[in-house]
Amino acid sequence: MFVTPYLEIGKIMNALRLMTLFLGFIFSSLPMLLFAANNHLHAVSLPALDKRPALVQKVIKESYQPTLTIKDSAAIWGEYAMTLMANGIRDEAIPALQNAHTLDPKNYRWPYLIAFSLLEDSGEKALKYALIAQKIKPDAIDVLYLMAQSYESVGDVKAAINVLQKTAKLAPENAAINYLLGQLLFTAKEYEKSKQYLIKTSQLAPSSKKVKDSLVRLSRLVKIEKTLLARLEKTAKNDADITYKSDVFFDVLSRSRMPQNLSMAASMNMRSRNWAAAESQFSMLEKYYSLSDQGLADYALVLTVMQKYGQAEDRYKVLIKKNPKDLRIRLSLADLLFMNRKISAETHYQWLLENATSNAYKSEALQGLGRMAASNGDLKGALKLLKQAVKLNAKSSDMQIDLVRIYADMKDFDKAFFHLAEAEKLGGQVDRNFKARLKHAQEQSSR
Question: What's the distance, Cα to Cα, between the start and end of the chain in Å?
Answer without folding.
Answer: 102
